[in-house]
Amino acid sequence: NMAVWQQHRVRLLQLLAVAAAAVLCYSDALRGGFCFDDHFAVRRNPDVRPAAPYAHLLLHDFWGQDITKDDSHKSYRPLTVLSFKLNRLLTQQESDRDSEHTPDHLAPAFHVVNLVLHVIVCLLVYCFSEHVFPGDPHCALFASMLFAVHPVHVEAVTGIVGRAELLCALFVLLAFFCYARAVDSDRTRWQWLLLSLVFSACALLSKETGFVILGLMVAYELLLGSPQAAYLKRLFSRKWRVVLVRLAIVISFTLVLLKARQWIAVNMVLSNYRHLENPVAYATGAQLWYNIGMVNLKYLQLLVFPVSMSADYSFNCLPLIESLSDWHNAASCAVLLAVAVAAALCLWRLAEGRRWLFMLAWLAAFFLPFSNVLFFVGTMVGERLLYLPSIAFCVIVGRAAHCLRRPILAATAATLVIAVFSHKTYEQNKAWDSELSLFEHAASVCPNSAKVHYVMGTIQVGRSNVTGAIYHFNRALEIEPVYCDVHLQLGMCYWNQGDVNRGYEMLHKALDCKYTELDAAQSLLKIYESFLAEQRENVWALVGKGEILQHAGILSQAAEHYLTAANVFDKEQQYERSVELAERALQADPKGCKTNLWAGVLLYNAGRQLEGIVLAESASLPHNCSDTHVEALKHVVGMYIEAAKQSHKLAKALEPRWKVLYPRASAALERKSL
Fold first, then answer.
1. Alpha-carbon gap, residue 130 to 263, rounded angstroms
2. Is residue 199 within 8 Å of 175, Cβ to Cβ?
């Protein structure tokens, strides 16, 4: 009994050491604010507001958009967004309730929850390692300690949006333990099997990659289930029928979940990824596979040697590979060969090897969804994506240290690695103190990232440093010339500096881009309206506003602005320009009664009498143009009389039309409306 008590005491101390290491490494993160994607997913997410209906969590994506729309990110994570909402509800003050955005002073409360979740996951990793490699407490301690302090987890733990990774990992591990409890006996424990499926669904509702645990349940069944029996004997025994029933339940449940998600989101994967975010998706042929290998090498480097780390790896942080002779290709092949050899060795040494094989399966299964091998994702490299696969990596490293069979050397190496990683994690957390510090650090790691320079530019705009903002925006355009978000911001900067022409040029470039057209249109409208407030007949502003309204599909108002500008030229007898604008109005709103009436008047005044009369006459039909037919009749009758006086030939040409018009004009005269 004393031996058992001593064993439990040591285990408890080890768990406390793991928790303490995690807390110490991330203690500095608790004073940080909202950074980077936190603003979109948490601070400005409409579903996080207390007054937002809870039903919206099931209908919107992670960022608060309708998930059925084509421009949705397709990230369906209602449990994660619910945790944000509850986080705000439980920590906000009375004065914060009506705030549209989550107040900045609530950020530490979000960081505390993230840290608590990370500590829980670290403790579960300890138990996970114990379960996969039983009888090796040193492996469990080193694996969980390595996981707790690994620098690659900073983005997942310190970045508030990383809660999706934390919750998903928590539910994945709980589902694994429940399934292991369900099958590690002579009979199926159905209550544990049911609970494992519930936790699997929770993992999927926290982040999409959670569905992978259902596949790993199958792998566990085949490799580690019923450890008291040899694998091959169990395979051909009567118990195999029980195994098949369990597998059928797991596979059926997986298909139901995937079908339900497809029904909710319409499309399963993101289809509107941008070249800026993931340029690999735009590579073709052999070049595509070169770059997939290069990206996955970067992920491996972040796991093994996490030195150069950044919050963003978008274009062109990692230059794309264009040649077969690039050293990345040889390195990718070497890594694939090493994995294949490791898997072969695991199969050869079946007794111990199946445990190693299961860990390789865990690593590969959680790695594949963001590897760009099966489908493309919305980011080229994301450090937080390694949170789940790193569980297997840390356990493999911990077990490999045990296999050295030199306890002093293994303990020394483990202590050194933990110390170095802890220091790196603590320092990396400092970069997340603020948006500025985060992207200053990112710029030092990825000086050729267009997005990093764009964000730096927006930060400088917020600090009223327009010169610094213009520098970063121009640097971003040098890297990615079609970066329309930069066109929008740069246009406003130039405009505010008084450089009207360059500002106008940049804003119109942003107007032609689907990502920025709405913001660009609103900015241009404000500019034009400010000019029109000072001078109602400012032709430049009238035409510009007309173009924006036409672009937005508000055609009648667009035509009205074109005609108002044309009328200015008509008064000045600049008929060529007035006709040009009248024709633009007709092009924008060809069926508009007012448009046809006033365009007809302008054409008539410009000497194109017959065309003008025909247009104005089309606006005088009461069944089509009830609002304008009386006014149109007045103008048309006047045009006929004046045209007949000016030209006998024109009068003869108009005579058939006058015979049709005369009865309507007479009827209007009798009604005293004309």
1. 39
2. yes
The per-residue DSSP string of 34-57 comes to: --TTHIIIIIS-GGGSTTS-TTHH
What's the full length of the chain, in residues? Answer: 674
Could you tell me if 72 and 65 are in contact, meaning their C-beta atoms sit under 8 angstroms apart? yes
Is 265 within 8 Å of 67 (Cβ atoms)?
yes
Distance CA 391, CA 143 (A): 8
Tokens of 503: 């500002």
Gap between the Cα atoms of 33 and 108, Å rounded = 7
Concatenate the DSSP letters of all residues of 256-292 into one string. Answer: HHHHHHHHHHSSSS-----TTT-GGGG--HHHHHHHH
Q: For the purposes of burial, counting CB atoms within 10 Å of the CB of 251, is it exposed (0-12), middle (13-18) or buried (19 or more)? A: middle
In sequence order, which residues have a C-beta less than 8 Å from that of residue 543 and are 6 or more positions away? Answer: 561, 562, 565, 581
- 628 close to 619: Cβ distance less than 8 angstroms: yes
66-91 burial: b if 16+ Cβ within 10 Å, else e? ebeeeebbbbbbbbbbbbbbebbeeb
State the Cα–Cα distance between residues 343 and 347, nearest whole angstrom: 6
Look at phi and psi of residue 409 and say left if phi exceeds 0, alpha if psi is from -120 to 50, else beta: alpha
Instruction: Give the count of beta carbons closer than 10 Å to the beta carbon of residue 319.
Output: 12
As averages over each run of 10 residues, the pLDDT of the chain (674 residues) reads: 76 93 92 89 90 89 85 86 93 79 89 96 96 86 95 95 96 95 82 94 93 90 64 54 82 87 73 82 89 92 91 90 86 86 70 82 92 86 94 92 77 90 93 91 93 94 91 94 93 89 90 88 89 89 90 89 92 91 91 87 86 80 72 77 72 66 64 53
Number of C-beta neighbours around residue 405 at 10 A: 7
For 555, the enclosing helix (H) or strand (E) is helix 555-571
Among 43, 138, 134, CA closest to 92: 43
C-alpha–C-alpha distance, residues 33 and 48, integer Å: 17
pTM score: 0.85
CA 145/CA 122 separation, integer angstroms:
8
On whether the CB atoms of residues 139 and 395 are closer than 8 A, the answer is yes
Note the maximum CA span of the chain: 124
- Our CA dihedral for 517, 522, 526, 527, rounded to 10 degrees, sits at -10
